[in-house]
User: What shape does this take?
Amino acid sequence: MKSFWISCVARSSIALALVCALALPGAAEAKKKPRPREELTNFLLGSELSLWLVGAIGRMATEQEIDRYLGLTADDEAEAFIEEFWSRRHSAESVWPAKQPRGIYEVRAGEADRLFTEGARLGRHSDRGIVHILYGEPAEVKYEVASRPGIGAIEVWVYPKKAEKGLDGKSPKRQYFFAKQGEFTVETAPPTRRRLRPSPFG
Assistant: This one.
């Protein structure tokens, strides 16, 4: 009898978990892994539109939106899609365009291009640019001399414990670690030893 009740409870728990996963919007999206740059490029579109998903937009978009955009074959279709994308994210909290997600994105993307562009890669497409666009400026920036060979100084961005949710609807991690590897500065694993010092530019 006891094993029968345990079996019933187990089956009920599994069924409830499946219902929740299907019913809650974004439940599956929360676990999605960012796609690499080449998988977010639509080579059938013009140069700027082809890279529209690369960077923060690719983190904000759902898998269905990404697949739809990658299936477009004409620039006018892409432009209409972008208008629809932002209209779905329109906030009723403010009437000012600059306070809307699109306005915030455009301002931060411009800042990222100015601050983080390296070589031919725009700052908005860089790892630091993505974090900056999604969550804004960090509360603090620190540096550490890397202990691993081939890696430059590690730049650490620190966000408050109760930071506001970003453009992707998620809270930022407490810390992000970046280091120069080859031509570009990329997100890297946390350093094993902490000898952090505040940024002289912060």
